[in-house]
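Operator note (shift B, R.M.): manual run for Sorting nexin 24 requested after the automated queue skipped it. Running by hand, logging everything below so the morning shift can see what happened. Input copied straight from the record, untouched. If output looks odd, do not overwrite the archive copy; leave it for review.
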Amino acid sequence: MHPVRVSIPSFRSENNSIEKGYTVFKIDVLMSGRLYSIEKRYSEFHALHKMLKRCIKPPEMPSKHVRNWVPKVLEQRRQGLELYLQTIIMENEVLPKIFLDFLNIRHFPSVPKTESCGKLSHQPVMLFLRDPYLLPHDEFSNVVIEGVIHGIFYPDLQPR
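Run finished. Output pasted below as returned.
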């Protein structure tokens, strides 16, 4: 189970003189015990869907065309978009970077050589230049500190 949970608790209509009215969906994202909200239009969901098709098989999206803008129809769209996001999280062990960017999740480092479509992969956090278990007991703590320092300051250094 992913440490990311999403819900779409509400939506609101926007009208302005420059463009035709549209609906904005409020997305609540819960990650690592922190809750924050973002707002997205349906067109942004649609763009996400098109990009996700290149790297995963995303679930079906609610219809792009809505016959009328009555609250009942918009509520059905809200529920459909919420299910869409939740299904992506449930069905993918590795969440595509495109999806994480859509949710404004930037807590993961970007890795230069990742799988296609910007999926994230594991990276070692520290590197030991010597095997700490083959050292005498009193040198063990020094090799841990040494490994952490090398991992932070010399991340490209390979073990001997």
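Quick read of the result: The helical segments are 42-52, 71-91, 97-102, 140-153. The chain has a mean pLDDT of 78.
Leaving this for review. - R.M.
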